[in-house]
Each structure stands twice: as structure tokens, then as C-alpha cells.
Design goal:
The structure is a homodimer of 413-residue chains. Chain A has 413 residues and is of the alpha/beta class. Chain A folds into two domains: 173 residues, Carbamate kinase (3-Layer(aba) Sandwich), CATH 3.40.1160.10; 147 residues, VC0802-like (2-Layer Sandwich). Helices cover 33% and strands 25% of the residues of chain A. In chain A, helix 2 packs antiparallel against helix 3 and helix 9 crosses helix 10. At the A-B interface, helix 2, helix 3 and helix 4 of A face helix 2, helix 3 and helix 4 of B.
Chain lengths: 413, 413
């Protein structure tokens, strides 16, 4: 029988009624003829409760024990989902990560899945089981200890199972009914997309449209997994939600598919850095080692052998970045005149695979921002994305202006 | 280094402060030179919450999924205890049941421990770890599924580890400071015992003095594990609490050590049963298969080939017992005139290893009850225990009278 993966997030399994509601959606797919692998998150609030306990024990906690504690939330939901399906007369059983086993690296709290052997679950399907319920977000290391994949890791679990079991599709059930052209809280003109390319979703995910975890989209691209994002709280048909798929499945795409934003950014500038070979490595090596997630990087034109280096990072990493740069300067690895941090910026981006074959998108974007008198502080581009840093106070205005400029309210392709 | 097992029940680990308090007690033993194995229960209330979830999914739930869900509470405490000890600078790590592995039978929700391999934990002790924290109440079956040992199973886990690791002692930390001559809520004259024989504790445990799980005491007897019951909420010395030990360690024991009671009993009488060989098996076989825990059994003198058969069981199993008997009658396996259930009885017992060498205890007991005008409905005796069924309304009176009659308020031996 064809296999379908269905993933339910924390709000979709928040209590027994919602678990029953989710189980009804599983039942519908079983009745359509699928063998189903259900991936569940912890009941909403439970993981935060467990993280709170761990943080209460020690400021510098052992990540291995953290993982052992916080993974328990998903185990509870997996058992309850299996019980609920059984009560409906559907042959089901639960698996915890170590039982499959979901083999991961030993990078506790940020482990990566290395292998998902199929034999055990395949055998149970062959024996008549119709639904395998698997606790998301967790796995087991070579040392036999429980690992977790990082927050939102259940999306990644779901895509990894869809890849391992060659599933027809991986349906991500959440509390929104799909992917939108932009954040509907910013403009009521935001429109749900029927389809979006995986490449576009990857950019949107990494730009703060928190519908899917970035890693799960990367994994879906690598293994060509078809994803669908849809709501647990609506009656769905086979075409509900947003299909996140290979761009070849999208007949005619708009130049720009969506406008993304990321509110809490900071812009850091190292003023008057010696412009010599290796200087970028000398700057960004220590930042990376300090756990600073550098996003945009701009180097000014060199003048008399010195240059300014600008980069952006999440605003809550500014202190860490400043310490890393000061220490590197004290060690004599880099030299700069001063370090300026602008913590009042945000990032706004337009994303679309149509850009590849369509010139003038950047010009159109800059014009729309200029018409609103919004000053651009940093620009970066990729093949299918243009991002700008602007003052945070203009974020909503910029998103609305760009949504209008690229006519995203119109009908879907 | 000598090994000590320390077990903390749910109220002793109810929140982070209490876990820290328990960890302090572990630290004290580490500083005394012990390698410690800590067995933890779920934070109080958590197991009930999880059981509530399971019961909410289905009235007839799959015990394998039940075990997978309810075992998660202990996993959380184990991780938190390990983190708390680490924060104190003590090398510690946690184990879930399947990681040790604690090998059990497949009788889900009532599994029995079959083996606890030492090698993994021994290796970590050899590498410098001082405390192994193990989630109580759980294990793993041959099929690789999580099992649980039944409510209160963490006591059994603790004793099993003490036996497997040849521990010097197994300290059971709870919310009372020891074992008493009787329930202090019934008479303020109840006195804490410094020592009690394992045989006596076994009778008291099974008679409803809920300090220790019966199975854990059985296991301690079989493997000669020295148990100590003491409070998590007091400053303890090396002689605090009650030592539950081989009777040879108790120099001079009283004839009677304690008075136990069990409130919610029922007395069932099958009137006019055909008295033929095999009749007892025909009655008690179906009761056992229906899950009725028969306690006392009395058969009247036969008269004209017919007899009355009386037995006691927990009052909440009366309907089940009646159904089992009616069905056995319908199948023609037994024949009786009528079935009378008295649901207003309780059991009161006196327990003491000194009875073995001391005649007249029963007579003394019956006299004390007669002096209070309490009618005895059923009597059973063992080598070290005499139990009677009486009307429930006399329970407190009977306990107080017997406590006085055997002078249990006096100084400890």
C-alpha cells in the first residue's frame, strides 16, 4: 500500500479532544488506502514545562540529560495517539525514537538524523498494522543515549521518515491553513498559496516564516519529498493547504511568490579593518565559534588598505558578537577602529523562483521602498531572493508596499 | 567502593526544591564514601496525570501503550536528579529502564524484573561516576517494548538494584519517618520502630501499611537486602528511620510488633456448596481468572455433603466476584444455594515474629476484642500473624484496643 506521513504539531495534539480530532484525519487517510506513519510533537506547553525544569536545575546543564528529559513529551503523545486510533478500531502502535531506531549524531539538542532503518515498521505493516505512530524530535546516538533534533525538530523527523519510506507525501498539520504570500498579521491582503516551490519555501522558512523548520525543507529538497502544509482545525480535501513541491510541479509561477520578514535583527559594523587576505576568516571564524549566526555580510570598497566590514545577526547575539570581536582583537588576530552595533533594524525579503528568468526585480523592489521613503542599509541577493536591512519601525510599511508592488494579492498561479 | 541504593518517592521529588533536597542526601552518602544508585519515582501527581490521559482515550486500553506513556514521568525525574547532582559537582548520569537494561517479563503494567545486567553502570563507576540515577517503575520486555511494574513499582526497582549490585543497604526515602506499630492517624500512641524483621514487614505491607510495596519486601527477603525506611523531610543520621532487616539482626523482639488494618474489605459467602473433592479449585479458579484478589478463606464443617464457603476480597471487586460465581454456576461447574456479600467489613491484624515462640497471642487478641464487644466474623492465622474480619465501624476501636493490649506504646526493643 502507498505510504503517507502525517505530522501533527503541539497545538494539534494539545489535549485529548485534539488528539481525537487528529486521529480522525489519520482515519480518513487509512480509509483512502494509505498505510500511515504519524509523527507527533509534545502536547503544546509540555516541552516548555520540561525545558523550564531543566533550566531550573543548572545554568550550564548537560545536554545529554536535557535531551533525556525534554524528549518525554513526544513519547506521551505517541502513546495517546496510538491508543486513540486503536479505540477507533485502527491497528496502530507507537514507537519512541530509540525503538525504531532513529539513528542520529551525538550532537545533543541539535542532533542530525543519520539513518532510519525500515525493517521493524515495514514488518508490522506487513502483519496488518495500518498506522505507525512515532515520537518526533528525538533519536538515539551511537552511545545509546537519547538525542533531540532542536526545537521544531518534529518537522525534520516527518520529512526524514517520508524520505526513508518513499512516502507519497508528507502532510504537516499545524494551526495555519497553509503558506501565505506574507504574514497575514501585517496585511489583510496576504493570500494563501496553493503551491510553492521547495526552493522558495526554504528561503521563506529561513527568513522567519515559521510554518516549517528550515532543516526539514532542506531535507525535503535533497530527497524530493512532497510536503503539504495544512490546518488541523479545518475540514480538508485532497487539495487543501499549500503543496510545497518541486518547481516542475508549478506550471506558471509569479516572479515573486512572497514577502518575508525577520524582525529582531542587528547590524554590526567593524570600522577600518586592515584589508588583507584572510581577514574574513579571521573575523567570521571567532563569530562562528561563539555561536553567532551571521546572516548578511557586506564588505566596503577598500581605501588605503583598510575597509569596513558589516554583518547582520539576531539582535540577542549582539553581546556575544561584541565579546568575540574584542577578544580576537586582544589576541591580535584582527584590528579595527571601532565596532558599531545598530540593534534597531529588521530584514525584509522578496522570494520567487521566477526571478531567475526575470530581470528588474531588484529595481522594482528598491523603487517601492524609495516611494515610501524607507532607507536601505544593507542589501544581499541570491538567485531567488532579495533581502534588505531597514529600520525596524518601517517593517510593516515595507512589507505592505512590497506586497502591493509585486501584486501578490492577485489570483494564484 | 561500597554501593548504596537510595530510592526517592514522588513526594520526595515533587518539585525542583525537593529534588535538590533529595540530592543533598545523596551528596552526604557520596561524601561518606559510597557509590550510589538512586532510584526515582515520577514527581508526585505526574503519574496520575498520565494515567488520566490514557484512561481518557479508551476504556479498554492497550497495556503496552499505557506503559509507554506512564513511564515517562520517571524519565523526567531521573534526568533532573542527574542534572541537580552535576550542578553540585558530583559526577552523575541518568539511565532509563531500557538503557540499563532492566529486563522484565512482558506482563505489561504488572511486569516482573528478570535481570539487571551490571556491566554498563559498573563501567561508569570504574570511570569515576559516583551516582547512577535510574528511572524506577519501568523496564523493557524481550520484544523491546517498555514495561512497568505496577503502582509503587519503584520500591521493587530499588530492591532489585540493591540485590543485583550487592548494595550495603537500600534506603527508601518517603514522606514518613519510618514504620510504626500502627497507623498514627488511628492512635497517637503509635510508636516508630527502630527495627523490624523483613517477615513482619511483609505481613504489614500486604495488610495495608502502605510504607513499602509488598513485592519489594518479598524481593528483599529472597535476596537478603537490608532496607531502611526514612523521611526525605528530616535531618537523618545513620540510625534514622526504621531498619527492615533479617530477624537475626533484631536482638530481642516483642511478641507483637504491630497492628495493621485494611479498611475496604468485603466478606462473601457461598451458602450450601456441594462438598466434593475439587470444589475449592472450581470456586477459586474462576475468581482468580476474573482478577479477584481473594485474601482469607474459611470453609465450614460439612453437613450432609454440603458446606458454606466464605472468602474475603477488596470491596471494589465484589461485583466482579459475583459475576464470576454466577457464570461458574451457569456453566455447571459449581452449585450453591445463594451468595451473600457483606461489604461493611474491615480486616485488623497483629503481626510479630515473637509469636512463633509465644503461645496465647490469639487468645489475648480475642479477649481484647471481646472486652470492646467487637464481634469477629472470620479468623485466619499464619506463623507470625493473626487476622480478623470485623464490622468496619469498629476498626479504629479494635486497632486502639489491640495496640494497648500488646503494650506497643512501650520502649522499642
Amino acid at each position: 500500500m502507498p505510504i503517507l506521513v502525517m505530522k501533527f504539531g503541539g497545538t494539534s495534539v494539545a489535549d485529548l479532544d485534539r488528539i481525537r480530532n487528529a486521529a480522525e484525519k489519520v482515519r480518513a487517510e487509512v480509509e483512502r488506502g494509505y498505510d500511515v506513519i504519524v509523527i507527533v510533537s509534545a502536547m503544546s506547553g509540555k516541552t516548555n514545562e520540561l525545558v523550564g525544569y531543566v533550566e531550573g536545575t543548572s545554568p550550564l546543564f548537560d545536554a545529554r540529560e536535557y535531551d533525556a528529559v525534554v524528549s518525554s513529551g513526544e513519547n506521551v503523545t505517541a502513546g495517546l495517539m496510538s491508543l486513540t486510533l486503536q479505540e477507533m478500531g485502527i491497528p496502530a502502535r507507537s514507537w519512541q525514537g530509540w525503538q525504531v531506531p532513529v539513528k542520529t549524531t551525538s550532537a545533543h539538542s541539535a542532533a542530525r538524523i543519520e539513518d532510519i532503518p525500515r525493517d521493524h515498521i515495514d514488518q508490522k505493516f506487513a502483519e496488518g498494522m495500518r498506522v505507525a505512530v512515532v515520537a518526533g524530535f528525538q533519536g538515539i546516538s551511537d552511545e545509546g543515549r537519547i538525542t533531540t533534533l532542536g526545537r521544531g525538530g518534529s518537522d525534520t523527523t516527518a520529512v526524514a521518515f517520508a524520505a526513508a519510506f518513499a512516502a507519497e507525501r508528507c502532510d504537516i498539520y499545524t494551526d495555519v491553513n497553509g503558506v501565505y504570500t506574507t504574514d497575514p498579521r501585517i496585511t489583510s491582503k496576504a493570500r494563501k498559496l496553493d503551491k510553492i516551490a521547495l526552493e522558495e519555501m526554504l528561503e521563506l522558512a529561513s527568513l522567519g516564516a515559521k510554518v516549517l523548520q528550515t532543516r526539514s525543507v532542506e531535507l525535503a529538497m535533497r530527497y524530493k519529498v512532497r510536503l503539504r502544509v495544512l490546518s488541523s482545525f479545518e475540514q480538508n480535501t485532497e487539495t487543501s493547504g499549500t503543496l510545497v513541491c518541486d518547481e516542475e510541479e508549478i506550471m506558471e509561477s509569479k516572479v515573486v511568490s512572497g514577502v518575508a520578514h525577520s524582525r529582531d535583527e542587528a547590524k554590526m559594523t567593524l570600522v577600518s579593518v586592515a584589508d588583507r587576505p584572510g581577514i574574513a576568516a579571521a573575523i567570521f571564524g571567532p563569530l562562528s565559534e561563539s555561536g553567532v549566526n551571521v546572516d548578511m555580510i557586506v564588505q566596503n570598497i577598500s581605501d588605503d588598505g583598510r575597509t569596513d566590514m558589516t554583518f547582520s545577526c539576531p539582535v540577542d547575539q549582539v553581546l556575544r558578537a561584541e565579546r568575540a570581536m574584542t577578544e580576537a582583537k586582544e589576541r591580535g588576530e584582527i584590528n579595527f577602529h571601532e565596532l558599531i552595533a545598530d540593534t534597531e533594524v529588521c530584514k525584509v525579503s522578496v522570494v520567487g523562483i521566477g526571478m531567475r528568468s526575470h530581470a528588474g526585480v531588484a529595481a522594482q523592489m528598491f523603487k517601492a521602498l524609495r516611494d515610501e521613503n524607507i532607507n536601505i542599509k544593507v542589501i544581499t541577493t541570491s538567485e531567488i531572493k532579495i533581502s534588505v536591512l531597514i529600520d525596524r519601525k518601517y517593517m510593516e510599511l515595507a512589507v505592505q508596499a512590497l506586497h502591493d508592488a509585486f501584486d501578490l494579492q492577485g489570483n494564484d498561479s
